[in-house]
Amino acid sequence: MSKPLKIAIAGLGTVGVGVIKILESHREMIAARAGRPVEIIAVSASNRSRARGIDISAYDWVDNVLDFTTRDDVDIIVELIGGSDGIAHALARQALDRGKSFVTANKALIAHHGNELAECAGKQQLALRFEAAVAGGIPIIKSLGEGLAANRLNKVYGILNGTTNYMLTQMEATGRDYGEILEETKLLGYLEADPSLDLDGIDAAHKLTILSTVAFGVKANFDDVYTEGIRRIKLVDIEYAKELGYRIKLLGIASLAKAGLEQRVHPCLVPNSAPIAHVDDGFNAIVVDGDFIDRTFYEGRGAGEGPTASAVVADIIDIARGHHGPAFFVPARAMQEVALISMSDRVGPYYIRLHVEEQPGVIADITAALRDQDVSLHVMLQKGSEQDGSVYVVMVTHDTREQKLMNAMNQINALSSVIDKALAIRIENL
Amino acid sequence: MSKPLKIAIAGLGTVGVGVIKILESHREMIAARAGRPVEIIAVSASNRSRARGIDISAYDWVDNVLDFTTRDDVDIIVELIGGSDGIAHALARQALDRGKSFVTANKALIAHHGNELAECAGKQQLALRFEAAVAGGIPIIKSLGEGLAANRLNKVYGILNGTTNYMLTQMEATGRDYGEILEETKLLGYLEADPSLDLDGIDAAHKLTILSTVAFGVKANFDDVYTEGIRRIKLVDIEYAKELGYRIKLLGIASLAKAGLEQRVHPCLVPNSAPIAHVDDGFNAIVVDGDFIDRTFYEGRGAGEGPTASAVVADIIDIARGHHGPAFFVPARAMQEVALISMSDRVGPYYIRLHVEEQPGVIADITAALRDQDVSLHVMLQKGSEQDGSVYVVMVTHDTREQKLMNAMNQINALSSVIDKALAIRIENL
Q: Are A184 and A170 in contact (CB under 8 A)?
């Protein structure tokens, strides 16, 4: 077991630099834990000379990452480039086709092509590992696939995107509205190059797809995830939620029942009593329900150089230890196709925020629209008027089927007194 | 990989029954995940005919568990008997000597004999696994040894005993004192057969020893853990702590720094802002600090049939998957001996509760004792008198070296006006 494990790293951004720092600073400790030395053989990035704060002169430099796949002195290719297609996908395919194990932090790649890549890896008993793709510092993939493997898991949910969680936390903490916090977050460099990945819930949906696949052993498809981001959340929503005993969190929720698989990413009102309501700033948290463990809860930093690189290196150590099992913990042929539950079938309570002109009959029109769809109200709040004479009206419904709620919302939005499109936020009494 | 993995189960109490339920009810799912069927071959317990709610007639019954070790049709022996020595220890030794892998939920066994057993297992490349020994439903051993393996871990702490956590939670929730809650907890059957294991922190110390060993790769010794239980906590302490912004939790805390290894189990005041302050009832929680992940937090059910059996079966699945690495995740020869930090060197703030006769000069005597040891006060609370004319005085100190605090406490306890021995509780601003 003393033969070194040789790795090539594609991509030297934050995470790539973190991986090098860990492997070099913990060289001996990792060799003891892995049972063999782990050596970096070659690296590649788009810009060779960029200042990175580390010395990469000891490694072979390769201009074209695909050249890693033909080298006999490389056992594992570590992909830290990103993107669901293009070079990352090509590298994954070629690496596995040519007998290299593949470790990645790329959630988009695994969410879109995980099944295909798992099959390639499985055929040749190669490792395909992606712990870093979900919730950086939390070893959630390993926990789902190994630690909780005795359970039939029925629900996995959590805060999967640190950037939007930071933004929501900041809105509440500073009393500033979405637009201001968005600008600040941009300046801090916390947003993805394409901010839509964060703000529209796409990044969280990538991660949720991976969690569903691992937790349930099903062929989860990214395109089947209902996805809604945080762009429409206003400070007023956070304040009303607080008054009602809730906090607003962007959650990814996946569950599997007899009726099928449900996968959704959207803002939620979660009760103050739920531990997940208190996961703030850039932290991620995941709750897992299983038939024998009941409930377990995991919290840690979701991103950043250290936590993400830690997950990449854990995968490398696992491979060094000889763990070459299937990527999704059951053979690709055993992954099940399951029916999907439509978002319009969701049943639960809703928070509704309306911004309307204060004129006679407005409330009567709104409540009539709700009545027509059998939506009954639990709470209604209206507190005086804004300076321009408009009013905010906030309502909490009893359990309602989503389709009926949306019908009522459409009817309400057609009223001439409605200023902004009404916002409905699902309440999850976790 | 389709050859069945054959197991023998020693001990059919709550956990043993849970293991059988999981393996039988999830037979196909586990075979898919493990890559091979897992079959129960033989079982043993002290009483064959006891009603267990499951049918064990399909398994060979063995009167003497040591007979498992000579059977060619057994791959893994699962020990669920308990106790650090006696039959559990003998079974472990013989199993490993005769080439059987060994899975146990026995924290006392691993805390006392883990190093010796790890060496036996390592020599023959056999698996020795004990996920169920610490924090039942939380896969913390796997997380420490594999998921976080890229990190030098520097601190691990948590709520490791569900029974005492339940008792402290109940005292606060019901406003009843220790004695009453203890009686209730006994009636509920939550206490170990020897209640001292729970109440005096011994069970938590067993678990902490195992956590230290795995987290730091050191030869941790149970006898080196400073251990103090909850017997002296009164309702008045819980109430004063609440008023000061804290909750009282029995924590196990292990840290490794240049100066050496610190391991202690004792009640703590933890600030309300710490997530661990809100882990209630029978739940366990563990916080892990590492150099690259920063901080991660894990919460789940600490005991009970389902969670503990889930951990046992996860270990079995791991072995079926071919994971036979060292028990403590580094070879036994690489486990380090480290210096120990004495409890008397602890530096931090303390909560002190005094019950004294109300007479002139009492406070002067007490504060003089503290001054003589350079203990300075941050808060002092005294609120009227009890019916018998005695008073409770509560103080919070600034950072103090424990030795000095204890010197002052001894001086205070020698005062004639002191009714009960003064109680000091360490404040951990986590």
A: yes
